[in-house]
Design goal:
The protein is of the alpha+beta class. The protein has 7 helices and 12 strands.
Length: 344
């Protein structure tokens, strides 16, 4: 029975996987990739497709994990890799992406054994990228002339019998060779600054200079979350009027600053392990008890047989052959052949 166990299929994990890929690319002198929502969607869709098809990567399969299975809702046709090419056109089939796509995929499994009861397969973005770096073929895919990336991780549980189960994890990263309109920069925040300065000076014959200066600055940095900040300082205004008699009037206006900051961060990582019920524990204990009882009975039988064999010759002499089990006759014959009576 297949039970959906957990999912890391969200934007934060996808961005994290791309950052780890970019760390590898920097080590080899390659430019970083940009995160793409389309690549993330393809990765999530592929893992869902494998899990709902009941695909088991740890048994012998004609098709490897890069394969796809029929999904009439999404219009996905069956594709058995490596006999068929299943990667390059998936961006155009499932999204608005127009480039050629490739995929790296990683699998992991944890199994129960008596008191060992794992709740996760142990798969993470770090373990997945490290696994790809250790494979020349997958490393070349990460270092290619790609532009965008996105990824996902999902896990599911399979019950083999009442006392044994597997938790299998899939991780996938998809890479595209052209820029994507839905791309997001994962490392460089975007900052927009607008500055307007207006200075107006009016002088009349009555010697009344008036100077007004208005400065408005708007700064809106955008990162993974959303932060909006607006600052509008107003320069104090001074008016001086001179008409024969000197008169000075000063009216400062306190600068007005309005700042609104609304950071919005969404992090969703859900791991929902399935807790095993007490019935499985009971069956396990009963099985262990039966095995121990069988072992003890076998040991007792062996000890009893040993002592009866050692004593059989003496008993035959004292009690007579007719009183013993047929096994005693056999033992007596063996004994006579091995130790013939001495001639007087």
């Amino acid at each position: 029975m297949l039970i959906f166990c957990g999912s890391y299929a969200d934007a934060n994990v996808s961005v994290q996987m791309c950052e780890l890929v970019n760390n590898v690319r920097r080590e080899y002198g390659q430019p970083p990739l940009k995160h793409s929502d389309n690549m993330r969607y393809i990765a999530e869709t592929h893992l869902d497709n494998l899990i709902h098809a009941g695909y088991d990567p740890f048994i012998e399969n004609e098709c490897d994990p890069h394969s796809w299975f029929v999904n009439t809702v999404l219009g996905i046709a069956e594709c058995c890799y490596p006999a068929e090419r299943c990667m390059g056109s998936k961006g155009r089939e499932l999204t608005s992406y127009t480039g050629i796509t490739i995929e790296n995929i990683h699998v992991a499994r944890a199994s129960s054994f008596f008191t060992i009861q794992p709740t996760t397969s142990g798969i993470t973005p770090e373990s997945s990228v490290n696994g790809w770096v250790g494979s020349t073929h997958h490393l070349n895919a990460l270092l290619g002339s790609q532009k965008v990336c996105g990824g996902a991780i999902q896990e599911y549980r399979t019950d083999v019998n009442p006392v044994k189960y597997h938790i299998t994890g899939f991780a996938a990263v998809w890479l595209g060779n052209v820029n994507d309109t839905s791309e997001e920069s994962t490392s460089t925040p975007t900052t927009t600054t607008s500055s307007t300065s207006t200075s107006t000076t009016t002088t009349s014959s009555t010697n009344t200079p008036t100077t007004t200066t208005t400065t408005s600055t708007t700064s809106t940095p955008t990162t993974t979350g959303t932060t909006s900040s607006t600052s509008t300082p107003t320069t104090p205004t001074t008016s001086t009027t001179t008409t024969g008699t000197t008169s000075s009037t000063s009216t400062p206006t306190t600068p007005t600053t309005s700042s609104t900051s609304t950071p919005t961060t969404t992090m969703s990582s859900t791991i929902t392990p399935t807790v095993r019920n007490t019935e499985s524990h009971t069956l396990l204990l009963v099985g262990v008890s039966i095995i121990l009882a069988i072992l003890l009975c076998t040991l007792g039988t062996c000890i009893l047989y040993y002592y009866r064999t050692e004593d059989s010759q003496q008993q035959i002499k004292e009690r007579g052959v007719s009183q013993f089990h047929p096994l005693a006759y056999e033992m007596m014959e063996i004994s006579i052949k091995k130790y013939p009576p001495e001639k007087s």
